[in-house]
Specification:
The complex is a heterodimer of chains A (91) and B (405). Chain A is an all-alpha fold and 91 residues long. Chain A has one domain. Chain A has 5 helices and no strands. By secondary structure, chain B is mainly beta. Chain B has a single domain, classed as Porin, CATH 2.40.160. In chain B, 13% of the residues lie in helices and 55% in strands. In chain B, a hairpin with a 2-residue loop joins strand 19 and strand 20. The chains are: A mainly alpha (91), B mainly beta (405).
């Protein structure tokens, strides 16, 4: 019986880790309390973690979409949070 | 005769009328045709724009200020006092427009050139692909996920104090590579992950590191990763742990297998205790470089030292956001910082500083700061390497204005 090399074992472990991460990412759900939060609540809670809460009038609705993506990469908020916050700021 | 003249007159009038009508009709056709062409062109342009699909915008930050210092030195047995002041220095001047280009809702390109005391440079230039709900893949030149200060808190319009904490941002490289990141909901809690694969740091002849090298010095890539955990449903607290692991020596050199291992622990707590908004931030960095024989700048002999560096800061600020009038725009902040570089090296020092500040927020992204910093540094270098020995005390007063545009 052929023994697997260390490289192959490492590759298998990395692959398993990726599969596990993807599974975890798909199974992660917010609680009802968190899921029920409005865009205004999430705006107040998350933006001030780094800076003052922005005024909705600062950017146009289309610009808020762009800023929302930029902030998701910086603060690592979830996609649901980003969409709710951006919808609130666009109003 | 009169009848002939009359008939001729009528004929000329009819002819003129006919000619004028045809001319007017021709003019009308020309105008209609030009309008139709213009409308068609506008329709083409409108279709090309694909509203909502591609967008470009410019934001950025401008920070400027003034610093005045008094320094008391007792180095290598010589005492001296110096005073100085300047408008731009590394802590209080920056002009950095940031270009954001969103294509649809899956791609974002970010580019931030910067003019500061180091001249012209680039803070980041990368492209992000929003591959899945909580999975972002980025490639290019970006700030590594090592702690949170450099990536989230360093901008002048965000930072509560005019200065950066010593050693914190300096130990967070910007580098070329790829990155995977995202935020994940976990019931009432949240977590976030950020993993990067980059060229990595390079070891200098004196034992310090450089980063952001477009050409890698070896075939080994550096892995940097951070995990953040937000235990409360209101996201008020975030704690994070980071690691950076890779070889730092030049390929095919005696130090090619020398490793650089770095660790960081960060904390961020922001909570509104009406009427006061409390803001606490902290980060602790550790940097360990493997054993290396360095060459003395004095006599070219070999020497070595424990290449271990730490930096730490803890900062607290309060702002009465629940009050009315002038006072709600005022914020006070204080910070303690330590930065210890390796003893018995050419750059060894134990340093610490106390920094206090008073800020006035003109609006949510525009701030005027008054900051006072008291710094003490004690050299731990050796005279055998021509290092300074002794101590330095520097008190600096800063005025700073910063705006996000």
């Amino acid at each position: 019986m052929k023994i697997l090399s260390l490289k192959k074992i490492s590759s298998i472990i990395i692959l398993m880790f990726l599969v596990l991460m993807i599974t975890v990412m798909h199974s992660c759900k917010p609680s009802q309390l968190v899921a029920a939060k409005t865009g205004a609540q999430l705006w107040a809670e998350n933006c001030q973690r780094c800076h003052n809460t922005p005024s909705p009038s600062t950017f146009s609705p289309e610009q808020w979409e762009t800023v929302g993506l930029h902030m998701q990469t910086r603060a690592l908020i979830t996609e649901d949070e980003r969409k709710k916050i951006v919808d609130f700021l666009k109003q | 005769m009169r009848t002939k003249k009359f008939i001729s007159g009528v004929a000329i009038a009819l002819l003129l009328n006919f000619l004028l009508e045809n001319y007017a009709a021709a003019q009308q056709t020309t105008v209609d045709s030009a309008l139709l062409d213009r409308v068609t062109e506008l329709e083409k342009q409108s279709a090309y724009k694909k509203s909502g699909e591609d967008h470009f915008m410019v934001v950025g930050v401008a920070t400027l200020g003034f610093a005045a210092y008094k320094s008391t030195n007792n180095l290598s047995g010589v005492s001296s006092v110096s005073k100085g002041n300047s408008f731009p220095d590394a802590d209080n001047y920056e002009f950095s427009p940031m270009l954001l280009w969103r294509h649809g809702d899956k791609f974002l390109m970010e580019f931030e050139p910067s003019f500061n005391n180091n001249g012209l440079s680039v803070n980041w230039a990368d492209i992000s692909y929003f591959a899945a709900p909580n999975l972002i893949i980025r490639a290019g030149y970006f700030v590594l996920p090592f702690g949170t200060y450099a990536k989230r808190e360093a901008a002048g319009w965000i930072d509560k104090l005019a200065t950066d904490p010593m050693g914190i941002a300096d130990m967070t490289p910007t580098d070329y590579g790829v990155e995977v990141e995202g935020g994940l909901p976990m019931g009432n809690m949240k977590m976030n992950y950020d993993v990067a694969l980059t060229n990595g740091n390079q070891l200098n002849a004196d034992g310090t590191l450089t980063s952001g090298n477009i050409v890698d010095n070896n075939n080994n890539k550096t892995v940097t990763a951070r995990l953040g955990f937000l235990p409360f449903s209101n996201s008020s607290l975030e704690i994070g742990v980071s690691g950076m692991f890779g070889k730092v020596g030049n390929q095919a050199s005696p130090i090619q297998n020398t490793k650089g291992n770095l660790y960081a622990f960060d904390l961020n707590y922001v909570k509104n205790f009406s009427p006061i908004l409390l803001n606490i931030k902290s980060q602790y960095n550790i940097q360990d470089i493997g054993n290396v024989n360095y060459i003395s700048p004095v006599d070219s002999s070999n020497y070595t030292f424990n290449n271990h560096t730490t930096s730490f800061f803890a900062q607290c600020s309060i702002r009465p956001v629940g009050l009315q009038g002038f006072i709600k725009n005022v914020e006070i902040a204080g910070r303690y910082t330590t930065f210890n570089t390796p003893a018995n090296s050419t750059f060894g020092a134990n340093q610490h500083s106390f920094t206090v500040g008073l800020d006035y927020w003109i609006n949510w992204r525009t701030v005027f700061k008054i900051t006072y910093d008291a710094y003490t540094g004690n050299s731990t270098g050796t005279e055998a390497l021509n290092s300074f020995t002794g101590s330095t005390k520097t008190n600096t007063f800063y005025l700073q204005f910063s705006i996000q545009l």
